[in-house]
Protein backbone atom coordinates (compact mmCIF):
# COMPACT_ATOMS: atom_id res chain seq x y z
CA UNK A 1 0.00 0.00 0.00
CA UNK A 2 1.44 3.39 -0.99
CA UNK A 3 1.35 6.36 1.36
CA UNK A 4 2.96 9.70 2.07
CA UNK A 5 4.13 11.21 5.36
CA UNK A 6 5.74 14.47 6.39
CA UNK A 7 8.87 14.55 8.59
CA UNK A 8 9.83 18.15 9.24
CA UNK A 9 10.54 19.76 5.89
CA UNK A 10 10.76 16.39 4.10
CA UNK A 11 7.91 14.55 2.43
CA UNK A 12 8.43 10.77 2.28
CA UNK A 13 6.47 8.91 -0.37
CA UNK A 14 6.24 5.12 -0.41
CA UNK A 15 5.06 3.70 -3.70
CA UNK A 16 4.14 0.14 -4.53
CA UNK A 17 5.13 -1.84 -7.61
CA UNK A 18 1.57 -1.41 -8.87
CA UNK A 19 1.92 2.39 -8.58
CA UNK A 20 4.85 2.26 -11.00
CA UNK A 21 3.10 0.03 -13.54
CA UNK A 22 0.85 2.89 -14.67
CA UNK A 23 2.60 5.14 -17.24
CA UNK A 24 3.18 8.73 -16.23
CA UNK A 25 0.74 11.32 -17.48
CA UNK A 26 3.19 14.21 -17.03
CA UNK A 27 3.65 16.44 -20.07
CA UNK A 28 7.06 17.92 -20.80
CA UNK A 29 7.19 21.57 -21.82
CA UNK A 30 9.78 22.65 -24.39
CA UNK A 31 12.48 25.01 -23.13
CA UNK A 32 11.88 28.66 -23.93
CA UNK A 33 15.19 30.31 -24.92
CA UNK A 34 13.71 33.72 -24.05
CA UNK A 35 12.82 32.68 -20.49
CA UNK A 36 14.79 35.08 -18.26
CA UNK A 37 14.92 32.44 -15.53
CA UNK A 38 16.38 29.77 -17.80
CA UNK A 39 20.11 29.15 -17.50
CA UNK A 40 21.81 31.40 -20.04
CA UNK A 41 25.47 30.92 -19.11
CA UNK A 42 27.79 33.49 -17.60
CA UNK A 43 26.92 36.33 -19.96
CA UNK A 44 23.28 37.02 -20.81
CA UNK A 45 22.29 37.75 -24.43
CA UNK A 46 22.13 41.49 -23.61
CA UNK A 47 25.76 41.42 -22.38
CA UNK A 48 24.96 41.61 -18.66
CA UNK A 49 26.51 39.24 -16.15
CA UNK A 50 24.26 36.34 -15.09
CA UNK A 51 24.83 36.32 -11.32
CA UNK A 52 22.71 33.15 -11.05
CA UNK A 53 25.00 31.12 -13.33
CA UNK A 54 26.07 27.92 -11.56
CA UNK A 55 29.49 28.45 -13.17
CA UNK A 56 30.15 31.13 -10.52
CA UNK A 57 29.93 28.49 -7.81
CA UNK A 58 27.76 30.67 -5.55
CA UNK A 59 30.46 33.34 -5.26
CA UNK A 60 27.93 36.10 -5.99
CA UNK A 61 26.10 35.30 -2.76
CA UNK A 62 27.40 34.87 0.75
CA UNK A 63 29.36 37.22 2.97
CA UNK A 64 31.69 38.42 0.18
CA UNK A 65 29.13 38.42 -2.63
CA UNK A 66 29.07 42.19 -3.06
CA UNK A 67 32.87 42.40 -3.20
CA UNK A 68 32.91 39.54 -5.72
CA UNK A 69 30.28 41.25 -7.89
CA UNK A 70 32.18 44.53 -7.76
CA UNK A 71 35.49 42.91 -8.76
CA UNK A 72 33.98 40.68 -11.44
CA UNK A 73 31.90 43.52 -12.93
CA UNK A 74 34.93 45.79 -13.02
CA UNK A 75 36.96 43.12 -14.80
CA UNK A 76 34.16 42.20 -17.22
CA UNK A 77 33.50 45.78 -18.27
CA UNK A 78 37.16 46.88 -18.16
CA UNK A 79 38.37 48.60 -21.31
CA UNK A 80 41.99 48.99 -20.20
CA UNK A 81 44.78 47.73 -22.47
CA UNK A 82 45.62 45.13 -19.81
CA UNK A 83 42.09 43.99 -19.03
CA UNK A 84 41.24 44.42 -15.36
CA UNK A 85 44.29 46.49 -14.51
CA UNK A 86 41.89 49.17 -13.28
CA UNK A 87 40.24 46.70 -10.86
CA UNK A 88 43.06 46.08 -8.39
CA UNK A 89 41.24 47.81 -5.50
CA UNK A 90 38.07 45.76 -6.04
CA UNK A 91 39.99 42.48 -6.18
CA UNK A 92 41.96 43.44 -3.08
CA UNK A 93 38.71 44.17 -1.20
CA UNK A 94 37.32 40.80 -2.31
CA UNK A 95 40.50 39.01 -1.20
CA UNK A 96 40.47 40.76 2.19
CA UNK A 97 36.84 39.78 2.71
CA UNK A 98 37.52 36.15 1.78
CA UNK A 99 40.40 35.98 4.24
CA UNK A 100 37.90 36.77 7.02
CA UNK A 101 35.97 33.57 6.16
CA UNK A 102 38.60 30.82 5.67
CA UNK A 103 36.01 28.05 6.14
CA UNK A 104 33.92 29.37 3.25
CA UNK A 105 36.80 30.50 1.05
CA UNK A 106 39.79 28.21 1.64
CA UNK A 107 43.08 29.67 0.43
CA UNK A 108 45.42 27.73 -1.82
CA UNK A 109 48.85 27.33 -0.24
CA UNK A 110 50.66 27.26 -3.57
CA UNK A 111 48.89 30.19 -5.15
CA UNK A 112 46.74 32.63 -3.18
CA UNK A 113 45.60 34.27 -6.41
CA UNK A 114 44.15 31.06 -7.88
CA UNK A 115 40.52 32.15 -7.51
CA UNK A 116 41.31 35.52 -9.09
CA UNK A 117 43.06 33.83 -12.02
CA UNK A 118 40.16 31.38 -12.43
CA UNK A 119 37.77 34.34 -12.43
CA UNK A 120 39.88 36.17 -15.02
CA UNK A 121 40.05 33.04 -17.19
CA UNK A 122 36.27 32.56 -17.01
CA UNK A 123 35.70 36.18 -18.00
CA UNK A 124 38.20 35.95 -20.87
CA UNK A 125 36.52 32.77 -22.14
CA UNK A 126 33.12 34.46 -21.97
CA UNK A 127 34.43 37.52 -23.82
CA UNK A 128 35.99 35.32 -26.50
CA UNK A 129 32.74 33.38 -26.89
CA UNK A 130 30.78 36.61 -27.19
CA UNK A 131 33.17 37.94 -29.85
CA UNK A 132 32.93 34.61 -31.69
CA UNK A 133 29.12 34.85 -31.66
CA UNK A 134 29.26 38.37 -33.08
CA UNK A 135 31.59 37.21 -35.84
CA UNK A 136 29.34 34.31 -36.85
CA UNK A 137 26.12 36.39 -36.90
From TrEMBL:
Keyword Disulfide bond belongs to the record: yes
Keyword Transport tagged: yes
A GO molecular function held by the record: protein-disulfide reductase activity
Compositionally biased residues, Basic and acidic residues: 128-137
Annotated Gene Ontology cellular component terms: mitochondrial intermembrane space
Record domain CHCH: where: 64-100
Biological-process GO terms, alphabetical: mitochondrial respiratory chain complex assembly; protein import into mitochondrial intermembrane space
A Pfam family recorded for this sequence: CHCH
InterPro entries per record: CHCH, CHCHD4
Domain of life: Eukaryota
Protein name, UniProt field: MIA40 protein
Taxonomic lineage: Eukaryota, Metazoa, Chordata, Craniata, Vertebrata
Gene that encodes the chain: Chchd4
Amino acid sequence: MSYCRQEGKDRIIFATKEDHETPSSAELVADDPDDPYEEQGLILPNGDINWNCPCLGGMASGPCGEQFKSAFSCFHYSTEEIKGSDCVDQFRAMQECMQKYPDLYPQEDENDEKSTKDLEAASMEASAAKEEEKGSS
